[in-house]
């Protein structure tokens, strides 16, 4: 029963996250009259605020990963068994797809879409690597020194990363895959997905190495 | 006396909430020069910030429901007697109407208006169902694991929901009814009100079922 | 010595507050290309964030009133002696004027200006009455139930009030007087000042009465 | 080992800070369609949110100075040895340069650039003096009364200072130097750098004097 609740929390939380990301992107683009800075502002504020809430909602149940890159890091630190991690990733992916379709339904868009928005080239890959490096670094460092602040830190980090990376910071393989099925503001062409996911995994592993060294054996003062 | 204070807190808090929602919508629309993304940004920031403050102000007195859907859920969880709940709903509705008129007065608008803004169709209903589901889920889950964060969580949730739902997330039957009496940015045509309220109640009941299962018997770590 | 520190804190804090309000108004208007919603957004974000910081900075020294209406309420609640209150108001007023001139200097504006921006009529007066009522209510209620949150609550309240009142919420007699000496975005014509100050005092006294009744003898749960 | 971790934290944190400042400036300018208020809004939100996160991430390791003006003040208060401080400043400067180049790489800009954006004249110098005065005052006062809030206070302060100073508040010599190597939204012409750095140091020393007097021997109530 406890396990089924954790899986449900990952599914539901990731679904709501994608509904926020894709839905607010559609709203932003529809209202902004062609100004993408305004569309991204609305998208950013909704995503940052939404993430803070969702991590608070589901964190006590499942840890609120919502992200295979996070689950990968937790496995590597032996914080979750590999089998449970696999179930988490399946739930996250299914949740992400459901969230995209939910956003499409709310905005009266065709449910099934394929994004035509190419996000190619090594600067995009570098952006995703840095974006995920920072996300994992945020989680590892705040979990160590001030864990009750981690949900807010993650929301604020993504708020910043939507703007400081050239890719608008997907930083999440399940999110990337699901957004390839939305031909809206937040979409990504399927052909760009492998680069993004590879870069995200590289960034996550790099962050694990760097922050394990940086934080290990360091006295933490509250 | 204590009961009269609770009723007064629900009345006053809901009135101030509607003054914020409707007033900032008027201000946004007047200043934004036809760009609805900008108008919604101002509306969003004011509503999110205002909600956080209002819940802190009146929460210790009445619980700061400001919302018949919230009161319904509290009744179903036996957190308030049915008679008191009915008084709460009356106070919320009267407060919401007063708040709309106060906003009209501050902005030198005709006091009595009827909105002509149709918000029809099942995607709008779905949006309200999801919006209210998320609101109730936010309250139930944070009340369980971190109650001192609930006011901020509700403000951030509505900040996100103004953008990720196609209806801009009314998520509140008293607010919906009152906004039908404002032919401004935040208005809703009276003919669209029944769909919204039905969807809100459905979303609230759904959230109660889902989160009761998800959070029950789950160990909560502070 | 302690008294001189308190006076200095009121002077310096109010000066910095006005530098933020007037300076960010100038910046907003210069950059926004004629779109007042954008100018007000920048003005709002700077003022809200700045207030939260300034109250944290000077609160432990002087209480961080920065506002004769707040000092009036504190006197009426016997939280400060009348003589000290008079010194506070002088320091606030001198600080407010200094802050306006500092903003003008930073933006290479003529130091001495008189605003030509009329803000007349009873809807503006009502706006200021409500704005100050809400500000004092925010302070009184959060001081009672959660005092460590008051600085954030005040910053968020003003963030909302810039948008939900037709007057953009001055809510402060010293700020009002000083802004009459700036012919920029945040200015107010001297002829509109008496209405604003009268309405602010009325709102403050009304809030004192309402919240004294609402909060008195009410059990507060942390 | 501990020292190398501190140096690494200052390097990495300052690099990420500059990636945020310069990267979000590029993103803002590219998307804003010529409206600098919108570009600055994106730049502001990213920088403020990013700073809060970065100070939480690296604070427990190195104190998260990221700024030679901060390190100078800490040395003058004997909070760090002069030799360690020198190493901090080297790490901050190297990190700042790396962060600028990282932003350029993510956005497919030429790595090596020289800014052509003149920021001259005494109002700009005054702006930087006030900006740094406020930043140091924020740190000294919140460290005294509520140290766990300092990271949020610094982020909110910079959020405000981007708008209320005419220079958009660099307030950091290493940041200033590095931004001279970016001919983008956040750039500063090399010829304007000395004025900025001199003003920043003056503001920092002034803040140290004023706040040492203001906060000394003052009872602090939590």
TrEMBL record, chains A, B, C, D:
UniProt membrane topology term: Multi-pass membrane protein
Main subcellular location of this protein, as a coarse class: membrane
Keyword Plastid: no
Location(s) in or outside the cell: Membrane
InterPro entries recorded: Aquaporin-like, Aquaporin_transptr, MIP
Residue ranges of the TM segments: 7-26, 38-59, 80-102, 122-140, 152-175, 195-215
Entry keywords, A to Z: Membrane, Transmembrane, Transmembrane helix, Transport
UniProt family annotation: Belongs to the MIP/aquaporin (TC 1.A.8) family.
Name listed for the protein in its UniProt record: MIP/aquaporin family protein
Originating organism: Sphingomonas immobilis
